Amino acid sequence: MRGLGWRALEAFANRREASILVVAIGLIIYFSLRSSAFYSSPTIKNIAEYVAPIALIASGEVMLLICGEIDLSVGRVFALSPIIMYLTSAPSPDGLGLPIWLGVIFGLLAAAAVGLTNGLITTYLGVPSFITTLGMLFFLNGVNLRALHGFQVETPGGHTFTKIFGGYPLWFNSEFWWALLVVVVLQVVLVRTRWGVHTVATGGNAIGARESGVNVRQIKIGNFVLCSILGGFAGIMDSTRITSILPLQGGTDIMFLGVAAAVIGGTSLMGGSGTIIGGFLGVCVLAILNIGFTILGVSAFNFDLIIGIAILASMILNVQIQRLKNLGVLGRGR
Amino acid sequence: MNESGNGREADDAIRVEHISKRFGAVRALEDVSMRLKRGEVLGLIGDNGAGKSTLVKIISGFQKPDSGTIFVDGEEVSIRSVAQARSLGIDTVYQDLALVPGMSVYHNMFLKRELLGKLGGLALPLLNNGEMRKLARKHLDEMGVRIPDVDAEVAQLSGGQRQSIAVARSVYSEAKIILLDEPLAAMGVKEGALILDLIRKLRDQGDVSMILILHNYAHVFEVCDRVNLLQHGEITLDKPTSETSVDELTELVVREYRQAQAGSG
Known about the structure:
The structure holds two protein chains of two kinds.
Chain A: H1 4-14, H2 16-34, H3 41-66, H4 74-89, H5 100-124, H6 129-147, E1 153-154, H7 159-166, H8 174-192, H9 194-204, H10 206-211, H11 216-242, E2 244-245, H12 251-264, H13 276-296, H14 300-326
Antiparallel strand pairs in A: 1-2
Chain B: E1 12-23, E2 26-37, E3 41-45, H1 52-59, E4 67-72, E5 75-77, H2 82-87, E6 90-93, H3 105-109, E7 116-119, E8 122-127, H4 129-142, H5 159-172, E9 177-181, H6 189-205, E10 209-213, H7 217-223, E11 226-231, E12 234-240, H8 246-264
Parallel strand pairs in B: 3-10, 3-11, 6-9, 9-10
Antiparallel strand pairs in B: 1-2, 1-4, 4-5, 7-8, 11-12
């Protein structure tokens, strides 16, 4: 009969989130034992600050990856949205001097417009999203640099605004709470709504989904817009917290960390499967590793080294487990 | 083929008249007329490129004919999209199967027709997975489709099981006309027998009419009431299966092949 190891493997195959949670907890225990500074309130604050923007981006990327697409430009939207907010709400002559809430709306609208453009080019003009968003990545960088003439500026917004989006309401920074809310809502959307099921269907079998009547283009475009808005929202909150807006903030680093977290959390780059919670736990693992190494005084080189291994290991596991499942060797998946 | 009105048209589930379709210089269908009676199983055969798939795609709303008319239940309709075909009760089970491998059997059964429930009286549009699971189980059992676990991913099932689920899904969607594009393609004898049993069962229940694209003539005589032969975009034979034979069909196709060879030689 099948032994304990086999059953563990099956459980692993069926609940990827559980395994990544185990990894996260294991890392926490390891770093707490290695350094008493790890389990302290500044460290936890640091981790939350690190997690929040990447978690927002990872959530968007997970939805996109599940429906078979990717967004490389979201890291530039991360800078674009606060820049649009600045141009709208900073006192003249630098900005239009409009209320900050209008600035937020315009910033998010700009993000949505980028997502819409990505989606339209990908679905209607048939350009692979990897290329579409690669072009958008460079284009937006140019836009961002031009808009601020390459300089750093101060984030506009009054006291209340800063408190809601860039403050520390309870234990963690507000962006972390927003990220947590988004993760929970999107996880429900993914597994318990038509949009979620159709997103999975689109990535799992686009032709089949279309034949079943699923509007594949609409699903993809919607998820492009969603991912972009989440990136812009994260950018606005991050720049509010650090009180300055930089044309080069975010960029490919934050985007690739989001994709990495998604993959480590069990999302397939080939579409059709993945979870938001898994992506969030993936971000937590990256954050714990990063902050943990910093506390231990380990070089940043090792951080990238370990992320690299983690991505490769996760992907090999994903592919091989799917293969075994398709052969009927491993039990049912969910 | 006789398409003039003489009373029997009322029995037609679907009737197409004078359908033509070209792809550039290629003549896919030329003045094709075909009828499917209510509760009938019609076998559509013909060589590769004869136009079978094009005809099915036109009826299922995937392609538009250049000319010709389609009648459903005696009424003229214009089918512009798959969704519209479906709203007329026409559903298609394709070769490339419209199932999503990484999704559970019951989510596949309910794809695009998901049931929504309410969460604690709140009108949130959340899926009612429990109900879908239960109904999928019940429906598959009723149709004699043996799937051990409706929570299993479709990727883990055999080709025959998948095809059965696809057919069961069509029936469950209250389709009145089901088009099956090579339902037995790439399937072993045992698996194929499952599908043939399912088709027979549906035929005996009499609620649906079916058009099957088939390659194996023996299958035609196992499950079809009538057979149409398409050759070079035209229907060259339309007979009840009781009045024809594998030999006659083979003879017609071989003759076509010889003529083609003589023409090119």
